[in-house]
Write a structure and sequence with these properties.
Elements lengths: L3 E6 L4 H9 L3 H7 L4 E8 L1 E2 L2 E2 L2 H19 L3 E2 L7 H7 L6 E10 L9 H8 L7 H4 L12
Antiparallel strand pairs: 1-2, 2-6, 3-4, 5-6
Bound molecules: flavin mononucleotide (FMN).
Length: about 150
Amino acid sequence: MQPWKYIVIDNRTPEAKNKLISTMMEQNQVWAKNASVLFLSLAMTEKDGEPYINAYHDLGLANENLTLQVVSLGLNTTPIGGFDKKRVIELFNIPSDYTPLVIYPVGYPGKLEDQVEYVKGRETKERTRKNINEIAFLGDLNTPYNS
Ligand SMILES: Cc1cc2nc3c(=O)[nH]c(=O)nc-3n(C[C@H](O)[C@H](O)[C@H](O)COP(=O)(O)O)c2cc1C
């Protein structure tokens, strides 16, 4: 069913790029404006007039594939959830059965020393993952998987 759409923004669409960047939090604008291409991902969250929550799952998978393809081409991307979704709906005339979810700015990886402090902090902080017992359970939600 592919319950998603992407609005692709590149050097052919400078007005759309300005509009999309303007919806982002300031700390995202400073680096995302340097991206050559931006993908605004939209989930089809309503189907036949009913909420369709599988779309969130499916768009996540599509976005993961987009990310893997980007990296395999030697490019890089960081998802952006920090943008004004209501404003995007207005500026891009998004129909009510679609929900803007995440933006993927894509470009060549830059040098860490050229980045703003916010990005440096994000890129150098320790990467943590939850313990397996916080996310996996055996048979019910009260029995940690590794107990
Ligand atoms: C759904 C989602 C939204 C995100 N939104 C932002 C954002 O608005 N700005 C930003 O700089 N990074 C954003 N990130 C990136 C995260 O801050 C983080 O750098 C990235 O998920 C890598 O995390 P890890 O080091 O734990 O693997 C987002 C990530 C996800 C998954």
